[in-house]
Structure formats: C-alpha cells, structure tokens
Structure prediction request, 437 residues.
Amino acid sequence: MQHTEIEQLDALERRVGLMVGLAEVEVKVAQQLKQIARSTRVAGFRPGKVPMDIVVRQHGAEVRREVLERAIGEAFADVVNVHGLRVAGYPRIEPKPEITSEGTFECYAVFEVYPDIVLGDLSGQEIVRPVVEVGEAEVDNTLTVLSKQRASWQNVTRAAQMGDRLTVDFIGTIDGAPFEGGEATGFLLEIGAGRTLPEFEQGLLGANAGEARQVMVSFPADYQANHLAGKTAQFDIVVQTVTEAVLPAIDAEFAMSLGIADGDVTVMRAEILANLQREATNRVQARVRQQIWQALMAVTPFEPPKALVQEESRQLLSKAEQDMRARGMDIAGSGLSLSLFENQAKQRVMLGLIVSHVIQVQQLTASADQMASIIDALAQSYEEPENVVTWYRQSPERMQEIRAQALENQVVEWVLDQVKVRDEPVTFAALMEKEQA
Prediction:
C-alpha cells in the first residue's frame, strides 16, 4: 500500500492519494469466499459442496467491496500513523478522475485534522458569582406553595376574587359568527393563573355564581391559532360556580404527606431547608460554569472541524426529534433540519475541544474522592441514596460520565484562579428566576 504527499486544502482539510494493490485484494477475496463456501447452502447441493462459481455469483461482489474498503481503511491508517495525524471524524473516499496505474486501485482520502488550540489570556475576563442566603423565610415561601398545591376548594356566595376558581359556560363569536374552539361547558379556570387570556380572566372578577357576563377579548397577533390571531372576539359567559381555596394546616398530617414518617414539622422544615440550599448551590454552580465556558470561548477563537460539527448537529437533531415524538408531535411538519442546529453544534464542539485542551495541558485528573463527592451529591435528592450510589458504581459507562464531570469541575476551578471573580448578593427568588429565563 502506498500514498502520495498530503495536500492541504484549507486550514483543517487535507487530501492524500491512496493506492491499493488489486492482486493482494483478490487473494483476500478468494480466501474469504472459500470460508463462505464451507457454510453456503444451495438447493441440490450438500453443505460445503456448492460449486465455487455459484458462491462467487452470490457473494463475490459484496465480498470484493468489503475487502477493498478494508484495504483502503488500512492504507489510510498507515498514513495517519506514519505522519502522526490527529484526524477529526471519518475520511471521505473519492475516486481519482485521472488514469491510474494498472493493477492498482487508486483514490483520494479527504479528511480533517484537529486544530491547534492556543488558549487566550483569561486575566481580563470577569465572572459574576451569585451569593445567596437560604433561611426560614424561603422555607415559609416553599410551604406556602406546597400548601396551595394541596388546597381543597369550597363554594362561596360572594363575588369572584383574584385566586378564585370558577366553573363557566361560554360561547365566543367574531363579527357575530361562532368560531372553532370558542365554546365550552363546565370550563374550569382560576383567576390570575394565566392559563387563559388576561382579558377573559379579568372580565370575570366580581362575578357571582349564576351571573351572565359579556367579555371582549383581543387575540394577540402571534396567537397560536392562526384563524384567531389579531382578531377580537365577544364571549357570552355564564358563571356556574365560584370556589375559593382552603389551604391545609402546616401540621403533622401535612408533614406526613411530604414523606416525613412521624409527622415531625421541625424535621420537615429542616429537610425543605436542606433541599433549598442544595438547589441554590446547584443554580449558582450552573451560572458560574456557564460564564466560564463563555470566557474560554471568548479568548480562544478558532474554526472547529466541519465533520465534528455535522456529527454534533445530527445528534442534536435526533434528540429534538425524540423529544417531539415523546410529546406526540408531528415531526414531518416540524421543519426541523440540520441547519437549525449548526450554530449550537459549533459552539458545543469548540467548547469540548477547549476543555479537553485545558485538561491535557494542565494535566488535570479526577480523583476517587472527587468522583465519590459528585455521586453522593446526586444521590441526596433521592429517598434511598445508597441505592443510587450503587447504581452508579456498578456501571462503567455511568462512572465514565462521573469522571468527565469531575474533570470539568477541575477545569472550572482552574479557570476561577485565572479570571476576576466578583461576588454579587442575590435573593433566592431572583436566582431561581434568572436560572429559568
């Protein structure tokens, strides 16, 4: 097997001519066909006694293609080893348009190499680190939310207020004509929950059970139902019931509903506090980590291999399609394509290469203690943490994911030593809002 000099087509793309001796290919084809002949079954012949010309007709073309592809792969591997190339993705094999030597198969292998990454100066980058205190006030707020989720509803004779739940019948018309989806009986809505258009909810404030109301509603120009977008509808509404929430007492029964076996309210509050503190820590780490990735990208510009970007785009597209199927959505009419994910894929590939570069250059390692700490933290949010720890440790694949996370944590710590870090006090509520935005 021989090859030509490696040509540089652009910054990362290379091309090399490969030559494979056909005589050697035919020898291997004959050997493989003989092996196949031993187990080939054809009507009228005993196993292993099928004439070779029949075996060749049935399997010759496929075997020759496989042997040739394998020989080309070996020739390309020789080039990679001889020249110490760091190949990104898989080579693209192209036939040579020019006349080639007799007795050889010649082609081009077009491939990309990994870029030389030079990490920029991080000293000018600033990381804003949120500082949040989680205390009894946050526990009280959480208990309020939890109690609302467990509220019961009772009928009232007064007029509807914000937060009340109403059962209504309605008919909607546009220019006097009913429209699709504009009629319902026994429709349940909560004033202020934002599950219907604001004008519809506001128009029911002050209404009593049995009262009929007429409410005008303007649909937004970008409303999801195209036949209603930008139009104004009149709704004739009859209120059937008005109910108010009755919140449960924060007592032993409430605590037991949250999984506190003995109903100890003090233990319940302590567990809620620990969960909130853990959530705050995770959110702070996520915000810091995101800023660190942005800082690394900002000081280390380069073009990533197109092959890796395309592969990442395919994976992102596949994940999006899986998510849509899980929601019962139609993929055929979704308009999803590789191009939609190209920018995201490019960023992910670049970041991955930069992080790998930092790990290699700084000789960062993941210790057993670091990996154990990550697993323990993950396990704390489950009822039986010890089972979660075992679940991770019994799988080499899952442990590899933990190792990768530990290495990323080391990169984060290293970057924090290089950049300017400014602590910024924030409330727990503000931290949650920013994370969700």
